[in-house]
Amino acid sequence: MFLVFFVVIIGLGYVFTEAYGDPSFIIFAAIFTIGYSLISYFASAKIALSLARAQEIQKQDNPTLWNVVENLCIADGLPMPKLYVTPELQINAFATGRDKDHAAVAVTQGALQRLNKTELEGVIAHELSHVKNRDILVSTIAAILAGVISLIADVFLRSIFFSGGRGFGGGRGGNNEAQEMFFIAAIVLSILAPIGTMLIQLAISRRREALADASGVLLTRYPEGLISALQKIAVDDTPMRTAKDSTAHMWLDNPFKGKGVSWWHKLFMTHPPIEERIAALQAMEG
C-alpha cells in the first residue's frame, strides 16, 4: 500500500509538472506537508489527549487499571506508559505516542465501569500492541503521503481557478497538444487522487487494527477477553462527545456511534467491521 502511495505521488508529480510547466509549486507543497506532518507527529500525543479531555492518573487513583497495564508491559517487555482516563461513558480506549518510550494509554470511564478485568486486559493488550507495533509512526507516514497528494491536487485546482487556465505549460515554451492532454489528465487526477489515497489510508488503518487485535491476543493468550469486550462495544450506542475525525483512527473502535452518525462517517470507517474482528479472534481460539 505504501508502494502504491509513492507511485501515485511520482505519477501526479510528473503529470502536474507537464501540465503546469513548472515543478516549483509541487516541491513547495511536498515540503510544506512533510514539515507540518512531522511537527504534528511529535505533538500528536498531547493533541489527542487534550481533544479527548483525558486526565493522567497514578496507581493510587485506579490500582486495578494500573496493575493490568503494568503486568502486561512486563510480559511484553514494554516500559510503563503514562495512563489517562477520559470522562466519556462509551466503552473505548486508545494509545498514542511516537514510540514506546513516549507512549500513553487512555481508557474511557465507560470502559472502566462496564468491562470486567479479563475484558479490560484484552482491551489494554490491544492498545499496547499499537505501541509495540509502532502504529502511530505508520499512521503518520500514511497521513504525510496522503497529505502531499491532497495538497498538490488542491494547489493545482486553485492555480487553475485563479489563472483561468492561462499560462499552463508556459514554463516549457507554450501550450501544445501534448500539454493540453496532460492538463486534462491533471484535472481528472486532482479530483480522483485524493479520494483514492484516502481509501488507501483507511485500508492501512483497518489492517493495523486487525494486527493489534491478533497481537493483543498473543500477549494475553486468552482471545475470549478481547472478544467479550468487542461484543459489549458492538451493542454500545453511547455517543462520544469528544469524537473527532482527526483522532477517530486511534480509538479501539470507531467513536462515532448512535443515531446521529452521518452517512459520511459510515462510508469512511477507520476500523474493520466489529463483527469481522470478533470472527477473526474466534478463529484464533480454534
Describe the structure.
With about 290 residues, this protein is mainly alpha-helical. The chain folds into two domains: about 100 residues, no CATH class; about 140 residues, no CATH class. Helix content is about 65%, strand content about 5%. It contains ten helices and four strands; from the N terminus they run ααβαβββααααααα. The chain has a four-stranded mixed sheet with strand order 1-2-4-3, with helices on both faces. A hairpin with a 7-residue loop joins strand 3 and strand 4. Helix 5 packs across helix 7, helix 6 runs antiparallel to helix 7 and helix 8 runs antiparallel to helix 10. The two termini are about 30 Å apart.
Helix content: 55-70%
Counted by DSSP, the helix tally is 10
**Which strand order spans the largest sheet, edge to edge or round the barrel?**
1-2-4-3
Shape: elongated
Q: What is the total number of structural domains?
A: 2
Q: Please trace the helix and strand order, writing H or E for each element.
A: HHEHEEEHHHHHHH
Overview in brief:
The chain is mainly alpha-helical and 286 residues long. Helix content is 65%, strand content 6%. It has ten helices and four strands, in the order H-H-E-H-E-E-E-H-H-H-H-H-H-H.
Descriptors for this entry?
single chain; mainly alpha; four-stranded mixed beta sheet; elongated
Would you spell out the secondary-structure blueprint of this structure?
Blueprint: H1 2-20, H2 24-51, E1 55-57, H3 63-76, E2 82-86, E3 93-96, E4 104-108, H4 109-114, H5 117-132, H6 135-163, H7 177-220, H8 223-234, H9 263-267, H10 274-285
Parallel strand pairs: 2-4
Antiparallel strand pairs: 1-2, 3-4
Helix pairs in contact: 1-6, 1-7, 2-6, 3-5, 5-7, 5-8, 6-7, 7-10, 8-10
